[in-house]
Description:
Helix 3 crosses helix 7, helix 4 packs across helix 7 and helix 5 runs antiparallel to helix 6. With 337 residues, this protein is α/β, with parallel strands linked by helices.
Amino acid sequence: MIKYIGSKRLLVPAIRQVVRGMPEVKSVLDLFSGTSRVGHALKQDGYQVFANDHNAYAATLARCYVAADQERFEAEAKRIIEALDALPGEAGYFTETFCIQSRFFQPQNGARVDAIREAIASMSLAPELEAVLLVSLMEAADRVDSTTGVQMAYLKQWAKRASNPLKLRMPELVKASTHGPCLAFERDAQALLSEVEADLAYIDPPYNQHKYLGNYHVWESLVRWDKPEVYGIAKKRIDCKTRSSEFNSKPRFEAAFEALIQAVRAKRLIISFSDEGYLSREAFMRILGSRGDVTVLEHDYKRYIGAQIGIHNLKGEVVGKVSHLRNKEFLFVVDAR
């Protein structure tokens, strides 16, 4: 899967262990699905998963890793991916924007992305099948990018991997759940809650000022293929200026989170949060305690790679000192009354 700040790759085993300890749970709502690592793992464990994210690239990852059943889509996806991988490059919007005007990818790989994405756009495919192809392309591009893992900027010197040729691979699809079809949504989280009910809700909201759209705007443009106007050195989509979430606002976060918790239609809740977020542990206990009994599991991790490298200006010069190199991730487990 793609490099991702906030990815729960290291936390997935703990989440799976907690869910496996709830024998009555058959369905799970992953409300802020991101890379869909959690939803993908829980589908592997046999649960019916409903994954949601309001960003198009994340919803596409969910359609691939949660909604697309292996039995139905794998054989055809493999055939198409093999054909797409043989296409020669043809430079277009992606190359001009992300290889010439900026340096996220080397031009020969940008041209391959352009050619493959245009080919996918010309096909009339089921949403799940198209998502599998788009994820294959997104992940292939991620393997040859020149960033520290976010798309707020690119490296001053080319990353070694950027010189590798772009190569498509088949994403790892999962067999259908015996408890019912797994679904992917591209909705505002609060709006979706009136329509979806599950035995368990896994909630991993944005928790600080960093917007995932800005961090992964290249993937948003790759998936939408709307060739938007861009701005700044990073060539962000112009709608990065206007698309926002209450969960990225310190003054509005607590009220938005409390309203969300009260609206969730599930008897069990698992909330993932970091000590870098807007709310204290005590505030979480107060809000979640209104729904039921709360257990807290604590995990200590290295911060993302950008924190390891340090704080630099646009010229690549060190301009600040990182305050800390580790953070705590909490799992709040709620047994609703």
